[in-house]
Automatic annotation (TrEMBL):
This is MALT1 protein. It comes from the Eukaryota. It comes from Centropus bengalensis. PANTHER family: MUCOSA ASSOCIATED LYMPHOID TISSUE LYMPHOMA TRANSLOCATION PROTEIN 1/PARACASPASE, MUCOSA-ASSOCIATED LYMPHOID TISSUE LYMPHOMA TRANSLOCATION PROTEIN 1-LIKE. Gene3D superfamilies: 3.40.50.1460. PROSITE patterns: CASPASE_P20 (PS50208). GO terms for molecular function: cysteine-type endopeptidase activity. One of its GO terms (biological process) is proteolysis. Residues 1-123 form the Caspase family p20 domain.
């Protein structure tokens, strides 16, 4: 069981976020209780994100349970989903970002027992995410058709601490003994029922 958690808070050319640090910390603690070997990284530029994903993929193989979690800015372009490194310039373009679909494809090629990508970003989700891709829909974005870079992430602030709405519901369900798909459905149900 291996997991790579990436949280990008401090951006050079985009608004800073507060929740990814706390979200990565909380998910790391929960996954370790499930006996995952966890690598948690914060504020990565593009080269660092590429290197981290490459090393993570080398750990995968037959029978491995693999989780990749990303919290930070993200966007959708031509039906593909991208994570935004801390050094990405304005405006968002695919060349300066990391393709989620490419990571999922490489994970699937490793014949792992489980591939799970949790994309916790302020972005517009596709209507039909690709198989193996989970996106916290509805609650993570405010409506802004065609302008994903202007969408705002929902963050809960408590003094110095801040966490995302997605993590609030995920941590309620992740340790329960149930199928992953059922757990994620429960997370979505909790998020969707929250008043905006």
């Amino acid at each position: 069981k291996v997991a790579l958690l990436v949280g990008n808070n401090h951006y050079e050319h985009h608004p800073n976020l507060l929740a990814p640090v706390m979200d990565v910390f909380e998910l790391s603690r929960l996954l370790e209780q499930l006996e995952f070997q966890v690598v948690s990284l914060l504020d990565l530029n593009k080269a660092e994100m590429v290197a981290a994903v490459s090393q993570f993929l080398q750990l995968l193989g037959k029978g491995v349970y693999a989780i990749f979690y990303y919290a930070g800015h993200g966007y959708e372009h031509s039906g593909r989903n991208y994570m935004v490194p801390v050094d990405a310039p304005q405006p968002y373009v695919p060349e300066n970002c990391i393709s989620v679909q490419r990571i999922l494809q490489k994970m699937q090629q490793q014949r792992t027992a489980l591939n799970l990508i949790l994309l916790d970003t302020c972005r517009k989700c596709p209507e039909t995410p690709p198989q193996g891709f989970f996106c916290p829909k509805k609650v993570r974005t405010r409506p802004s058709p065609g302008r994903c870079e202007d969408a705002e992430a929902y963050e809960l602030q408590d003094g110095e601490y801040s966490s995302g709405i997605f993590m609030k519901y995920l941590k309620k369900h992740v340790l329960q003994d149930k199928k992953v798909t059922h757990m994620l459905e429960d997370v979505l149900e909790g998020e969707s029922s929250r008043p905006l």
